[in-house]
Amino acid sequence: MSHMLCIGYGRFPPNNITELWVMLCSMTIGATFYAVFIGIMSTLIMSIDSSGRLYKEKLNQVGEYMRYRKLPLQIRRRVQDYYEHRYHHKLFDEDAILTELSYPLREEIQIHNARSLLTSVPFFSNTSEEFISLCVTLLKFEVFLPGDVVFKRGSKGDRMYFIVRGIVDILTTDGFVATSLTDGSHFGEISLMREDGRRTATCRAATMLDLYSLNTSDFRTVLDAFPGMQSVLSEIAVERLQRLDKYSDEARLYQVKRDYKTEKITSNDMENTDINKKRLGAMKIPTLTKGFIRSMAPTLGVATLNESETTTSSELPSIDEGETGVGCSDWTSVVPEGHDETTADIQTEMEGKESRE
């Protein structure tokens, strides 16, 4: 036994040539069986987790590629996060597996895989089983990382999306977050229904995002098979465009209020007059002439204005009445209660500071 395990000669070493040959054959047979045993056990262990092995091999290949291309560390981490979230340390050739199956069996599996989508998306709750079956067979699973732009405004739309898990921010033309969509929502269908096919807004992933996408050709296939769904999607598209325009105006107003509060001059800020003049110029505070204030009085909620409440400024930038927009229409709402601060107050305080210096 000690000979076969290659751990020694046993109790007595070989004393003649015959014993020496027996010992050599025993050690050779033992080493062979030992190597075969190790190989069988290794193969058995690897076969238990074949998908995990494929995932590790894929990740190693991707790592070598990123090192070869000398990608930044931040991008490497994002790529690794994508693979971990996308495959959960398991890698399958799902398309090849489903292709080998019969159509009824493949459809049953796809419906099972998309059960979280069907239960969370209200869009599918009022549709027929035939419509759901057709859509599920055409959907493709996708993953986006936080901060990824799903698509940009003005780009060519080639698919619509259904959210399984995660949050998507819908951005206006000015870059404001108009609204956020979460589990069960769908977006991107507007560009598929427009003649030019352009995106009307920018969509950005706020969290890890699991989506199912439906490309343009498959979208047309669904509408051809179920013409009644086009009117439903058209109504949703019109409603969303109206909401997007509304949110754009509200977002601009909010930004003006926030900039005004951030840039508001205090007594400590008056230490540097030149800097504060530049800050006032960046704020684009309008010249409050009597005609301008009277024209804006109904919007500002001011009943009467006296002559003493108007002023002009040669140093502060002026805005013509035709340039008044969201920022000016709600200017008084950002001024704290009990303090009627106008450009005249700010300019007087600045001039007093200059005279004292």
Automatic annotation (TrEMBL):
GO biological process, one term: sodium ion transmembrane transport
Pfam families: cNMP_binding
Annotated transmembrane regions: 20-48
SMART domains from the UniProt entry: cNMP (SM00100)
Gene Ontology MF terms: voltage-gated potassium channel activity
Keyword Transmembrane helix recorded: yes
A GO cellular-component term linked to this record: HCN channel complex
Region (Disordered), start-end ranges: 307-357
Keyword Transmembrane among UniProt keywords: yes
PROSITE patterns (alphabetical): CNMP_BINDING_3 (PS50042)
Domain of life (superkingdom): Eukaryota
UniProt keywords, alphabetically: Membrane, Transmembrane, Transmembrane helix
Name of the featured protein: Potassium sodium hyperpolarization-activated cyclic nucleotide-gated channel 2-like
Source species of the chain: Paramuricea clavata (Red gorgonian)
